[in-house]
Specification:
By secondary structure, the chain is α/β, with parallel strands linked by helices. It contains nine helices and six strands, in the order βαααβαβαβαβαβαα.
Length: 240
């Protein structure tokens, strides 16, 4: 029997942008009281998620591909994004139980989410790009995501730039645990249409995990998932 392998997907803003969600926090909002700013951001993104121009076909295509994954592989989703477009697409698949290709049907939001879930206290706090990295607290969700990352060897980063300290802090934390865990000799594929973002993310990962094997792919997320995703075929994730 083959040991199951986990592919961890880390989604950044570029993944949401490929679905039409390009909204960013207006500059004047940065001077507003933090609690008020958070509420304004949540309201704006919830509204934006239901706007007519939002097209989640990139996520639909990705999930359709992964549904055809080799039985040796399952997938775990982690995002720095506040929106829950990906989670919504998973819910709409109507899965009655975790299928072989998903570690679980949830998406880890390590910077918080605009999703309204009532009095659930395991979720990560809502973190702003302007927040100091020290504001990241140990929540059940963040700890689970972090442990998944530390014990995994295969990663794909979609549409992430690591341009803010809050996002980079997640990778700095990894560097302290890499010596005796699988993450220390991990394989990474970075997918982004921006060469600057590719270079920045690759350099931060290499600095945090010196023994990591890093590949970059300059392509838009939407275009990539509409193709054969040859990189996943080469890895053995998708059957050729």
């Amino acid at each position: 029997m083959h040991m199951s392998k986990c592919l961890v997907w880390l989604f950044g803003r570029g993944a949401s942008a490929a679905c039409g969600l390009t909204w960013t926090v207006p500059e004047p909002w940065h001077s507003i009281n933090r609690d008020k700013q958070v509420e304004m951001i949540k309201s704006a993104i919830r509204q934006e998620m239901n706007a007519p121009h939002i097209d989640t076909r990139p996520y639909k295509s990705l999930l359709a591909h992964l549904k055809k994954s080799s039985n040796q592989w399952h997938h775990q989703f982690v995002t720095t994004n506040w929106d829950y477009l990906l989670q919504r697409e998973i819910v709409e698949m109507g899965l009655s139980a975790d299928p072989h290709w998903l570690s679980e049907t949830g998406v880890y939001h390590i910077n918080g989410s605009v999703e309204e879930l009532g009095a659930i206290n395991y979720r990560s706090d809502f973190l702003l790009e302007t927040d100091l990295a020290s504001m990241r607290k140990q929540t059940v969700e963040a700890n689970d995501a972090f442990n998944h990352v530390l014990w995994s060897r295969y990663f794909i980063i979609i549409g992430m730039s690591l341009s803010c300290e809050m996002d980079r802090s997640f990778f700095y934390a990894i560097s302290r645990h890499q010596d005796n865990l699988p993450i220390g000799e991990s394989d990474w594929l970075i997918v982004n249409s921006s060469q600057d973002s590719l270079d920045m993310v690759a350099s931060h990962i290499q600095a945090a995990i010196p023994r990591a094997d890093i590949s970059v792919l300059k392509v838009d997320f939407g275009a990539w998932v509409n193709g054969p995703m040859k990189e996943l075929q080469t890895l053995g994730v998708l059957n050729t």
